[in-house]
Specification:
- The complex is a heterodimer of chains A (292) and B (284).
- By secondary structure, chain A is mainly α.
- Chain A has two domains: 11-51, no CATH class; 56-291, Orthogonal Bundle (MetI-like fold), CATH 1.10.3720.
- Chain A has twelve helices and two strands, in the order H-E-E-H-H-H-H-H-H-H-H-H-H-H.
- In chain A, strand 1 (40-42) and strand 2 form a beta hairpin.
- Chain A starts with 10 loop residues before the first helix and ends with a helix.
- Chain B has a single domain, classed as MetI-like fold (Orthogonal Bundle), CATH 1.10.3720.10.
- In chain B, 75% of the residues lie in helices and 0% in strands.
- At the A-B interface, helix 1, helix 3, helix 4, helix 5 and helix 7 of A face helix 1, helix 4, helix 5, helix 6 and helix 7 of B.
């Protein structure tokens, strides 16, 4: 905090008032509503409701469809995070090495950041369209009996590919700025000590990038949890048979399409808890980052 | 020396493959959008631009589409701009004010209020989407710009960004300003805001892109076609274009994805340096 501050009794409240008002109305109220509804069971017409304690939780979370969705979300998040981070790291290291064309590479690798996930999803959907999609034709031509409408593995492949594609640019920007933040002297010193560029990367550069990597892992997992909704909704819509349903997509599906408010709220609360855990992890690593 | 050359070539090769991987899908989408529907159906995706650029984009922008045939491309473009700009500007103003209070004032509720603001970082809108919808319905704000934009501003990323920045501003500035008799508001508007110009620009750019790209919330909030943004409109319209009718209008679907992509991409490209700075700084 500042050493020097204003001493006023009422003025600071005026300054925070807009933000607090928005938070109370559009954040605290709905969050409380979600928690409250997660304990209620409504009848089919939404006319009466009954307090059922943790029944919504046990009903939804122990259901096979939720467990399937949780399993998919876990695998999906890990794969998307790992693949997009590795790709971005490779590209950032290479882009940091070149002198000629460095800014062109940088621009052309990062601009996809601006594309919305659902737009990326739609583009991918068209690329995989059985009638006109070249990727669809290509995979079938090389002997892969590819059909993402029917096959769970193929559908997951499509969703993961598009999600990774969409996320590479953000990771690239962070890795590149992390690499550029490494002092020249460190690089020069390491060049004298170690001639193999590969070893130099793993023993010097990569450990120095560790804070960036940890931080990006959290960002990417959050992305895979939440922002990929747009990709899934525009491509597989969770099909076939719920094989590509992430937890967020399921909240939406059950709450809006299925009108199961209690169950959907219980899922929301579980998600909130998952995100809280994630954030705690994130802050532990940010703490680490400060000490570097 | 020979070794080094091979290394350089492989470096460029990897980068070029990366650039193609990132750019080719968008290029193909654009090229395909400029062909006649018959060509696309017969020959598949196109890698070179065709002759139907004006026909396609004219139809997409100025001929009404959608389930009810009541939405123009230009209308969606306008709605997207309102969402992107409204979100970015609203967020900057509100978060600057709140950050100012938190950093520059000593007041009793500072810590609890800060904790409440902090809490919003933990829970994205996605996890409380259905109760948020109900709250908005109760307030009669469905299908309004305010209802669309304001709940999205509830998350406090901007506040944290400005808090970080204000804390790095030297204390001497406030001391000097106070000696000159500056008021709380005067110090904010005359000294702090001009000082934060670059930061404001960076945040505006990022938030414009974030706002423009919103999907789930507008999807739930808007029921009338004339309120569609491009990002949600394309999905609805895509289904009609690709699945309804005798001849799938793939070129229009592609044209809409290009339209939805172009403005945020341009903003990022034009303001690249600010954008990178803002992104890297704000996520810390």
């Amino acid at each position: 905090m500042k050493r020097v501050q204003f001493e006023h009794s009422s003025i600071p409240y005026l300054f925070v008032a807009p933000q607090i008002a928005i938070i109370v109305i559009f954040f605290l109220w709905p969050a409380a509503q979600a928690i409250y509804q997660s304990f209620l069971l409504e009848d089919a017409f939404g006319l009466s409701s009954q307090f059922v304690w943790f029944r919504n939780y046990s009903d939804t979370i122990l259901s096979t469809s939720w467990l399937q969705s949780a399993g998919f979300t876990a695998i999906f998040s890990l794969l998307v995070t790992f693949l997009s981070l590795s790709l971005a790291l490779l590209l950032a290291v290479k882009a940091n090495e070149v002198i000629r064309g460095a800014s062109t590479y940088k621009t052309t690798l990062m601009w996809a950041y601006a594309i919305a996930p659902p737009v990326a999803g739609l583009m991918g959907n068209l690329m995989f369209n059985p009638l006109i999609g070249d990727l669809y034709k290509f995979f079938n031509a090389i002997g892969w009996d590819f059909n993402h409408k029917l096959d769970a593995f193929d559908a997951s492949f499509v969703v993961i590919l598009i999600s990774v594609w969409k996320q590479v640019s953000v990771n690239f920007i962070f890795f590149l700025s992390g690499l550029q933040g490494i002092p020249k002297a460190v690089n020069e010193a390491s060049m004298m000590d170690c001639r193999s560029p590969t070893r130099r990367f793993w023993t010097i550069t990569f450990p120095l990038l560790a804070p960036t990597t940890f931080f990006l892992m959290v960002i990417n997992i959050t992305y895979a949890f939440f922002e990929t909704f747009g990709i899934i909704d525009t491509t597989t819509q969770g099909a076939p048979g719920g094989a590509t349903t992430t937890l967020v997509f399921k909240v939406y599906q059950d709450g809006f399409r299925g009108a199961d408010l209690g169950g959907s709220s219980a899922q929301s609360v579980v998600l909130m808890i998952l995100v809280l855990i994630l954030t705690v992890v994130q802050f532990r690593y940010i703490e680490r980052k400060v000490h570097y | 020396m020979k070794n080094w050359n091979w290394r350089l070539i492989s470096t460029h090769a990897i980068l070029i493959v990366g650039v193609l991987f990132m750019s080719l899908p968008v290029w193909v989408a654009f090229a395909t959008s400029t062909h006649a529907p018959e060509t696309i159906l017969r020959d598949g995706l196109q890698f070179l631009p065709g002759s139907h650029f004006f026909t396609t984009y004219n139809e997409v922008l100025f001929v009404e589409g959608g389930v009810m045939k009541s939405v123009l491309g230009t209308t969606m473009l306008k709605n997207s701009l309102i969402l992107g700009l409204g979100f970015a500007i609203g967020k900057v103003i509100i978060s600057m004010l709140a950050a100012y209070a938190i950093v520059y004032f000593r007041f009793r509720l500072a810590t609890p209020l800060f904790c409440v603001i902090f809490l919003t970082l933990l829970l994205p809108l996605e996890v409380r989407i259905i109760p948020s919808y109900e709250v908005l319905a109760k307030l009669g704000m469905l299908d309004t710009h305010v209802g669309l934009i304001v709940p999205l501003i509830a998350s406090a990323t901007g506040t944290f960004f400005f808090r970080q920045f204000f804390r790095s501003v030297p204390d001497e500035l406030l001391e000097a300003a106070r000696l000159d008799g500056a008021t709380a508001w005067g110090f904010f508007i005359d000294i702090l805001v001009p000082l934060s110009k670059t930061m404001i620009a960076a945040i505006l750019i990022i938030m414009f892109v974030v706002g423009w790209n919103q999907y789930l919330w507008p999807l739930i909030m808007t029921t009338k076609e004339e309120n569609y943004t491009l990002v949600i409109g394309i999905k609805q319209i895509y289904q009609i274009l690709a699945e309804g009718g005798e001849l799938p209008q793939y070129q229009k679907a592609f044209a809409l994805t290009i339209l939805a992509t172009l403005p945020p991409v341009l903003v990022v490209l034009i303001f690249q340096n600010w954008f990178v700075k803002g992104l890297v700084e704000s996520e810390k």
